[in-house]
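Structure ticket #2291
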Amino acid sequence: MEKPWRLWGAMERCTLTLVSWSWGACRVSLLALILTFHLYGGFFLLALILASVAGILYKFQDVLLYFPDQPSSSRLYVPMPAGILHENVYIRTKDGVKLNLILLRYTGGDSASSVTSTNQSSPTSSAPPTILYFHGNAGNIGHRVPNALLMLINLKANVVLVDYRGYGKSEGEPCEDGLYLDAEATLDYVMTRPDLDKTKVVLFGRSLGGAVAVRLASVNPHRIAAIIVENTFLSIPHMAATLFSFLPMRLLPFWCYKNQFLSYRQVALCRMPSLFVSGLSDQLIPPVMMKQLYELSLARTKRLAIFPEGTHNDTWQCQGYFDALEQFMKDLLKSHAHEESAQASASVTII
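Resolution: structure written out below.
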């Protein structure tokens, strides 16, 4: 059975390559096709024109979703934190793309003794949690440093910020599968660090980053302690239907979308403690989508934090924002400590 499957796979790859090449050729020769159709007509030429237009629209979706060049210096300059212990790190994904990370280290409070040395081989049970920060679809990680520093201080946690491929100083071009690989590589890197507590990894995602965080949590349920998502969407098809309500976008099949980010399906697989943060003054993503994600979640512990004055990018500046996140993290760590205590008790044999 192995040879027929290999043959089928080779035929499938050849067919996809041929279709992709033909599609590209149609896009390049669109003007010639239109002129030829105008002169001679014919259903075949009309079909080629429609295919080329569809190809252009399909490729154009990336332009509508990813904005790594906004502001204009985002690909040239990444602001670094000043006066705080941090590491500027480069890692590689499974497909060989080099990514830029910033690790902000928490060194204060009760956990100081467990993180003062970056060469420590095994963090103690009082080691701080580590938050993986996935940002939105514009700018770079340097623009999120002020927000991340407040997280570090208020939540007493390490914070790892990652620039997706094509953003900041990271290589490559952004795409949905690529962003998923970037998230996996970031988690893998954190898991290889002997000085970070692997049992206290928390995902945070805002906007597009929320979709990246949800997907990463859905396929790594045993490596993620909790997830926090803020002002994110159900899926790209849902967003298209909202933004282009004057077009029959709801009638388009999903395969028409190059990027899908189906968070409304993947969130049901995230059973770890989950916090959904919603700014009701968000003018980009309808706040009702955050409520729907919360309702779709099957997490054993889930919360919905609502901020009436919160906008799409600035909900974190609302009063009470960090109080909500801090309480969520405290309850998480308390539950974590209780589980560790229970495991320790179970390992004791009484004679």
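Closing remark: The longest helix spans residues 2-28.
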